[in-house]
Task: structure prediction
Amino acid sequence: YREGLQSQGLWLNTADSQITEMVAAAGFDWICIDLQHGLAELADLPRLLPIVEKCDACKIVRVLSDKPEEIRRVLDLGAHGVIVPMIDTLEQATAAAAACRYPPVGTRSCGPTRAMAYDPKYLAHANDAVMCFVMIETAEGFENVEQIAALPGIDGLFVGPVDLSFSLCGGVSGLGGAVFSDALDRVLAAGKQVDKPVGIFGLNPENAVQQLRRGFTFCSLATDTTLFSNALQQAQTVAAQSSSRCRD
Result:
């Protein structure tokens, strides 16, 4: 992302080892384990992160909240970066960025037990290597987006489209409207102004392609649960059609 290249990722809602193995082997640029709305808990990360490490995907974790202790713990367990939800103010964004870095530029406490296990030189480059993305998904955060994007230590923005639509438009119907479209343009412009990447949660693969063409730097193509659910529905449809032809 630091080279400005576009990337595609996969969102993990489950905490299943076998699903994580299949996702890791699929060749995505990055994989995000969701602690906020997904089924994984903090205690699952020591099991899931090593699976992702076997491939070349970047390990991202959406943390449960903006609490610094949660951010620090996720990084100690070996995540390359965090996506921090529900950022409204400059103060929240500043605290999140500080939690990702060691002093004197941040407030992260030194104890990366697992991170150093696979990278003995971790401390020498940790401040530069970790990534702190903050989510723009509320009306207040949206109003502060230019100032948030410009903060030192904020490596990029990440749009939560459904929550942002609820906040700005009153519901999911706003996703297809001009107000929401203009809002996306403003967030993209805020990132471009300070030369920082802007990502977005893709609602489906088609939507993800559209968002990347629009100018977003990185986007999730889908969630593991959505892909599995769609595959089940497709299989059921094929089976139903086959049964119908047999009866005819």
